[in-house]
């Protein structure tokens, strides 16, 4: 299928007359293992591997999303110059996600919501990889994470609570943020706070959508 990583188990070898092998055919398994089938091209079983049907991982559109992992959800987390630590957070970096919010009395509370999140890509405002071209001064606009569904929902819930003063702050893993004059709370407390102030609506069925349209 398109966008599939080619492994050794997918390849078999046969002997053929040289006249039947054109110039744009791969003749070495090592030359294609670890590469990918092109975006709009499948390779039928028993077919030769043609140059135009095999590409490097870096040539895949949004190839970073391959790193998300099976069963995980890609999530783009907005950052700016300050929260990206002046472009010093790279793909493969680990961060902790702190949360700042107002409690029931209006006091500011802060704590670590999530720990050890891996940044699988860093994108600029146009969706380009920030670090793929060192000749351009691309600025970080999004960290890309691959999240388990429950964590994905938790972060989205927190983002919707801006009216409660909720702010999510990325910090390099193991680091800390200034908390002078703020109440320090636990991860469990923050999760309970988010869930207590949000609900998850059941999805509409097709009939409901059609009626509303």
How would you sum up the global shape?
A: elongated
Characterize the quaternary organization of these chains.
Answer: single chain
* Helix run count: 3
How far is it from the N-terminal to the C-terminal residue, by CA?
A: 36 Å
Bin the strand percentage.
Answer: 15-25%
What is the helix/strand order?
EEEEEEEHEEHH
Could you report the average pLDDT, rounded to the nearest whole number?
Answer: 85
List low-confidence stretches. 204-213
Report the biggest beta sheet as strand number plus sense, adding barrel if it closes: 4 strands, mixed
- Rg over C-alpha atoms, rounded to the nearest angstrom: 23 Å
Q: Structural class of the secondary elements?
A: alpha+beta
Say how many strands there are.
9
Order of strands in the sheet with most strands: 8-4-5-9
Share of helix, binned: 10-25%
